[in-house]
Design goal:
The protein has about 325 residues and is of the alpha+beta class. The chain has helices at about 10-25, 35, 55, 65-75, 150-165, 185-190, 235-245, 260-270, 280-290, and strands spanning about 40-50, 85, 100, 105-130, 140-145, 180, 200-205, 210-230, 250, 270-275, 310-315, 315-330. Strands 2, 3, 4, 5, 6, 7 and 8 form a seven-stranded mixed sheet that branches.
């Protein structure tokens, strides 16, 4: 969604200042042969949505793979206080559901922070020590697939941290925490072999042997209270709510010139791009899409401009669209 004009944050202000500084430095440099052979274009791509918004954005809680969602919803509807720690209700796994339907009524799902708790969790870290084929050089160990399910996942994630140590490459922070895996669920802790007093000291995973190290560490975790609010009684009302929430631009095709409509059609099939200054048909469409900042061809120096995916109601259909600057050969 476009940001409110008042939400001119310090981060954006600093980003704008940094952009001005970089531009000044760039102005002192000479052009390379590669720059002379390329041109900067504004590319529009569109993708038609196949269904109404209320069919896409209203989630059935039994599809979220989290029993916490059902429990939180049932309690909140009854006016009871339901809280979770660390992970928010209605979003602990997969896509965060924001709206659901129950007994013919549509509800907005959410949560609010109501406190903080200091808790202790076991943290698993593993360290490579050898090759399973070199039996004389490695200690007794257990293969990862032979461990209980929670431990298998723990080793898999702890391995991501071990693999990244002293190496280039990304790590999925969020899964990996504190350079390892954090056991949070009591059910996982109770089922774990690694956390037991006589648990394995080494584990084999992906043709390597790893030493197992477990530490109990302190965490400060937010406490969230589930919130549920009715917002609509019919699909038509819910569609109106979602249009107000999600749609960035409304375009009546009949009010566009045939050339501008042609640009929109081409953007769906192959994408459409032009250099600045843009043609009259491209400017017309950009204005209809409420993409005013892009008209000056220098939007990258402007603060607070969203060049991500947006949503347009084009007649009776919805389209996702993106506007991005790219380079291409002349």
């Amino acid at each position: 969604m476009p940001s409110n004009g008042h939400e001119f944050t310090r981060r954006r202000l600093l980003g704008a200042a940094a952009g001005v500084g970089l531009a000044a430095v760039a102005g002192c440099s000479t052009r390379s042969p590669l720059e002379d052979s390329t041109e900067r274009v504004l590319r529009l791509t569109t993708y038609r949505e196949e269904s109404p918004l209320h069919e896409q954005y209203v989630t059935s809680l039994n599809r979220t793979s989290s029993p916490v969602d059902d429990e939180a919803f049932a309690a909140a509807v009854e006016g009871e206080r339901y809280t979770t720690q660390y992970r928010t209700p209605f979003g602990s796994r997969g896509r965060h559901p924001e709206f659901t339907r129950h007994d013919g009524t549509y509800y907005r799902l959410g949560s609010v922070v109501v406190g903080q708790e200091t808790v202790t969790h076991p943290v698993l870290r593993i360290y490579e020590v050898g090759d399973p084929d070199d039996l004389d050089a490695v200690p007794d160990h257990v293969a990862q697939p032979k461990l209980p399910g929670p431990d298998q996942r723990a080793v898999q994630i702890a391995h991501m941290a071990a693999r990244a140590r002293d190496n280039e490459g990304g790590v999925p922070w969020g899964l990996v925490q504190r350079d390892g895996y954090v056991y949070r669920r009591e059910s996982a802790i109770e089922a774990s072999a690694i956390l037991s007093s006589d648990g394995p000291t080494h584990v084999a995973y992906r043709d390597r042997i790893y030493e197992v190290r477990v530490a109990r560490e302190t965490f400060r975790e937010s406490v969230y209270r589930a919130e549920v609010e009715p917002v609509a009684e019919t699909p038509e009302e819910m569609e109106s709510v979602l249009r107000a929430r999600l749609v960035d631009a409304y375009v009546t095709p009949e009010r566009l010139s045939s050339d501008a409509r042609d640009v929109f059609r081409r953007a769906e099939s192959d994408g459409y791009a032009e250099t600045h200054p843009y043609s009259q048909k491209y400017e017309e469409l950009l204005k209809a899409l409420q993409a005013w900042p892009f008209l000056d061809g220098n939007v990258e120096k402007d603060a607070g401009v969203d060049d991500g995916t947006q949503l347009v109601a084009y007649g009776d259909e919805y389209y996702e669209f993106t506007l991005r600057f790219v380079t291409r050969q002349r």
